[in-house]
Design a protein that fits this description.
Layout (H helix, E strand, L loop, with lengths): L3 E6 L20 H10 L6 E4 L5 E5 L1 H10 L4 E6 L5 H15 L4 H11 L5 H11 L6 H8 L6 H9 L4 H7 L4 H13 L4 H18 L3 H5 L2 H7 L6 H16 L1 H16 L13
Parallel strand pairs: 2-4
Antiparallel strand pairs: 1-4, 2-3
Helix pairs in contact: 1-2, 8-10, 10-13, 12-13, 13-14
């Protein structure tokens, strides 16, 4: 149990740039703003005084941000001893957060990335992944840690649930410009998560074969024409783009499929009869 003492602080004493124990990511919850605005600060934030006299945030970064937004100053907080180790402060921040709510994928990435600076890989996997409701796995741990360096728009979308973390995993090895090109592409059109994964693989393969970066494939005249054809429903445009990319990836197979469809149609078979091509 870490010892804490009550202390009244001015918000200007908080070191907002010190994020060593910060694992929250995302916009301030409206209900938290309403709560503090209506009844004040119920749960005290936990801080730690640093050698420069400023305070490091341990727990309650969102509460402090709301208080700053509302102009509530000074604040009654709890302060840890200066002798508290960095890993003890970070551990406290993690356990405080998971006890109150489920963390979004970006926050899980921050937990694993920051704790990896202090703990061994086995400890990280066996203690912290179950704590984050993740399967204890070295591979999965590595994938989540790849999310933290991604660009802010991508992280915002993952944290907000508009982009699945699986897409973050598959985008992480790519160059920054290619990641953002895929991100903008997926924000425009309604692809399922599995189709998004398929399209990343398809576009990367086309680019490697033809010596183009993925962003150039997505910015091709044919794809752009379909992306901007707003007279068609978005779902229809998405299907057409997918077919176009599949045709570029395997042109001979696409040609065979088109021929099969055309010849099957020319047979004039009854509607209840369906021809299935061989695999």
């Amino acid at each position: 149990m870490l010892e804490k003492e009550p202390y009244s602080i001015q918000l200007e004493e908080v070191d907002w740039d010190d994020t060593s124990c910060l694992i929250t990511y995302g916009p301030l919850p409206e209900k938290l703003i309403l709560s503090i605005q209506t009844v004040g600060l119920i749960q005290k934030p936990v801080l730690q005084r640093k050698s420069d006299g400023l305070f490091r945030i341990i727990c309650g970064s969102r509460r402090l941000a709301v208080c700053q937004h509302l102009g509530l100053d000074p604040l009654s907080c709890e302060v840890l001893s200066t002798s508290t180790s960095p890993v003890a402060g970070l551990r406290m921040a993690i356990y405080d957060n998971v006890a109150q709510r489920g963390l979004n994928p970006v926050e899980k990435s921050l937990v694993l990335t920051k704790m990896a600076q202090h703990e061994s890989q086995p400890q990280l996997v066996q203690e912290f992944m179950p704590l984050l409701d993740l399967e204890p796995s070295d591979t999965l741990c590595g994938r989540y840690m790849q999310l933290a360096p991604l660009e802010e728009p991508i992280l915002d979308a993952i944290a907000g649930g508009t982009l699945h973390e699986r897409i973050g995993f598959i985008l992480s090895p790519l160059e920054r410009e290619d990641r953002l090109a895929f991100f903008n592409f997926f924000q425009e059109l309604p692809f399922s998560v599995s189709v998004q994964e398929e399209l990343v693989e398809t576009v990367v393969e086309i680019g490697q074969r033809d010596n183009f970066p993925p962003r150039q494939v997505l910015d091709s005249a044919e794809v752009n024409e379909l992306r901007r054809s707003h007279k068609q429903p978005a779902r229809q445009r998405a299907q057409q783009i997918r077919r176009q990319l599949q045709a570029w990836r395997a042109p001979r197979l696409a040609a065979r499929k088109e021929r099969f469809v055309r010849e099957a149609r020319d047979l004039g078979l009854p509607s209840e009869v369906r021809l299935i091509p061989p695999p």
